[in-house]
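Researcher: Watch the backbone:
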Amino acid sequence: MSKKDKDIALFVSFCIEEYKTAQGMTGEQVLDLFSRYGVIDYLSKCFEPLHTQGRQWLIEEINEFIEIRKSKKA
């Protein structure tokens, strides 16, 4: 695994943990939610700009991403 791949994996893990705490969810619930709406793909593909942002901004960004995906599925 390359250094960048490790950095992305750590970043995704960080986002999962922070989102879990902020939303009062379990890790399993967050993984299910993120899988359903493609959040992990988004975080991985957009790692470069996203990893420079703060915790609260990331949580808001993830919420907005999920809401957009929900509205497209409706």
